[in-house]
Design a protein that fits this description.
- 4% of the residues lie in helices and 50% in strands.
- By secondary structure, the protein is mainly beta.
């Protein structure tokens, strides 16, 4: 550093010399956050990957085949639920019906087991049984855990929406917004108007749907969770477990 400063000082004494910019340091990423007993987790089930939010006995999951949104399991889990003692859940399967309009798995079950080192999630449906482990919390690029790190999600968004229960295929979404604790979007013939409640790094959301051609139930609830600094998932479900609407949205 001393030699660099001396060289810069000498350079400034010379006519027409341009000093080299001061060196910048790239912050080191934060170390992985331990798995804990609730959080946002990346899971690799082999045939598909998942991003799961598990908190207070509830869970919301996203399944991906590559970049394709493939499924959305969700539900309540009892305190005695484990990966070996699975319980019934709702599971929106977006890709395994012939028409790709999505169906609810008829007998989905799920269990999770936390240890000091990891969380194991095991899920069973019509396609078989799958399990995966996570040893740390899902994190932003800087290493901060999504679950415990509030970030500003306000902005305009575009992306896709997948639904189950209304006979719609995947549709593009443009002009969605999250502003001042409100979520708004127009998609699948419906107007979505929702209120967000912040919980550290994610949000509860309750949504009213409306529209002459809207086939979704008028009240949906779920979560808004950042997937990274530019992308959020809005995961909405009916109280009776027969309908789901999941948005994957990027800023801009």
């Amino acid at each position: 550093m001393r030699s660099a400063l001396l060289a810069t000082a000498a350079c400034l004494l010379l006519v027409g010399c341009t000093a080299a910019p001061a060196p910048t340091e790239t912050p080191e990423p934060l170390p992985p956050t331990p798995v804990g007993t609730e959080g946002v987790y990346d899971l690799d089930f082999g045939q598909f990957t998942g991003v799961y939010v598990i908190v207070d006995g509830e869970f919301w999951g996203l399944h991906f085949l590559g970049d394709t949104l493939a499924g959305h399991p969700h539900g309540l889990l009892s305190p005695t639920n484990t990966a070996l003692d699975r319980e019934p859940i709702a599971w929106a399967n977006f890709v395994d019906d012939g028409r790709r309009v999505g169906t609810m798995e008829p007998a989905g079950t799920l269990g999770r087991t936390f240890t000091e080192a990891d969380v194991t999630v095991a899920i069973t449906g019509s396609m078989g049984s799958f399990s995966a482990k996570a040893t740390a919390q899902r994190a932003y690029a800087d290493g901060a855990a999504i679950f415990t790190t509030p970030r500003d999600v306000d902005g305009g968004y575009s992306g896709i929406v997948r639904t189950v229960g209304i006979d719609h295929k995947q549709e593009p979404v443009a002009g969605a917004t999250i502003t001042d604790g409100r979520f708004a979007a127009e998609a699948v013939g419906c107007t979505f108007d929702g209120a967000l409640t912040e919980h550290a790094g994610f949000f509860d959301v309750t949504v009213e749907t409306s529209g002459a051609d809207c086939l979704l139930q008028p009240a949906l609830a779920g979560i808004v969770v950042p997937l990274d600094d530019e992308t959020v998932a809005v995961e909405l479900d009916s109280a009776d477990g027969t309908q789901s609407a999941v948005f994957i949205l990027s800023r801009g």
